[in-house]
Amino acid sequence: MKTFFMVALTTSLFSPLAVMAQSFWLILQNSSYGIEKIEMKNMDQCQEQGKKYSKSSGIPRYLCLEGK
Known about the structure:
Oligomer: single chain
Strand order of the largest sheet: 2-1-3
Helix content: 40-55%
Radius of gyration: 19 Å
Structural class: alpha+beta
Largest sheet: 3 strands, antiparallel
Number of helices: 2
Low-confidence stretches: 4-15
Shape: flat
Mean pLDDT: 75
Distance between the termini: 33 Å
């Protein structure tokens, strides 16, 4: 019985942290290879890297997405 309460308490304490976790993804479109996804630290880094990719590849197709 104690084990059940410990699991319930631990789950309720850490579940809000899991909901607050965010991830940022840079999605690149490349005509030769299709699409590629790369996880980024934050949205600013994603935008910056997407712009660099567009300049270097000549293909201005990138998208930054925010996930949980």
